[in-house]
Amino acid sequence: MSAIIDVRHVNKAFGGLHVINDCSIQVEEGSVTGLIGPNGAGKSTLFNIIAGALPLDSGQILLDGEDITNRPANELFHKGLLRTFQIAHEFSQLTALENLMMVPPDQPGESLAKAWFAPKAVRAQEAEVKRRAQEVIEFIGLNHVRNELAGNLSGGQKKLLELGRTMMTDARVVLLDEIAAGVNRTLLGDLIGNIERMNREFGYTFLVIEHDMDMIARLCDPVIVLAQGSVMVEGSIEEIQNNPEVIEAYFGAGAA
Q: Residues in domain ABC transporter (predicted)?
């Protein structure tokens, strides 16, 4: 495998405080890579930099060899790099199915001219988008609530829906930001199963921030540990769990 995301010597400071400090990581194509660390380690800041939500101060980020440093999120979306959020962002007054149908870019129905002068093309594309949305909603296990307003879904169902939205594009890399937060154990099992299937069956690459170590242990290899804005260690979950430096960073000196 080769690196699809290559973060090189990235730095980011706020008010003179270095939150990300000469940080370099690689995410191999086809992997599910975990990103963990104690609170304040810089995980979310690094995530936001990779996703185009925050500019970096120095360093470089490559996507499959292409320099995407400080490219905006909407441009990265078209390059196949997407992210989810710790708090799901749904269109609450649209149904679950309609939420999925909103995702594909450049739909002809978005153009007033095409709506007026090429209605057949618009209808054909809408039918194809709806067909794909129905496939996705069945895949993620939400077919029974496909016509329910997304705002009425449970927290776990909203997370499943957000994961499903990444399948409505030609996504290559998905950044998952604490997707387990607020999700009950039953739906968490569904989430994990869907991520595994997306990786195994469709080749999605995932970078995962998560505090649920059971989820990290099941999904992620390798696991990268951040501390004070830099990489402390990288390895398998077994290596990470038995590393004295990691134990000290999480629980304090003497914990090991």
A: 5-253
Q: How many domains does the chain have?
A: 2
Report CA-CA distances (Å) from 93 to 98, 159, 169. Answer: 10, 16, 22
> Does residue 163 lie within any of the structural domains?
no
DSSP string, 129-145: HHHHHHHHHHHTT-GGG
Give me the CATH number covering residue 182.
3.40.50.300
Q: Domain check: are 16 and 82 in the same one?
A: yes
Residue 85 scores a pLDDT above 90: no
Q: How many CB atoms lie within 10 A of CB 117?
A: 10
Task: Say what the pTM is.
Answer: 0.89
Q: Kind of pairing, strands 3-14 and 58-63?
A: antiparallel
Three-state SS for 169? coil
Residues 79 and 102 in one domain: no
Domain for residue 157, yes or no? no
Distance separating alpha carbons of residues 164 and 69, to the nearest angstrom: 27
Full residue range of the structural domain in which residue 217 is found: 3-89+171-251
Whether the Cβ atoms of residue 171 and residue 163 lie closer than 8 Å to each other: no
Average of per-residue pLDDT across 194-221: 94
The set of residues, in sequence order, having a beta carbon less than 8 Å from that of 213 and lying 6+ positions away, is: 36, 237, 241
DSSP code string of 29-76: TT-EEEEE-STTSSHHHHHHHHTTSS--SEEEEEETTEE-TT--HHHH
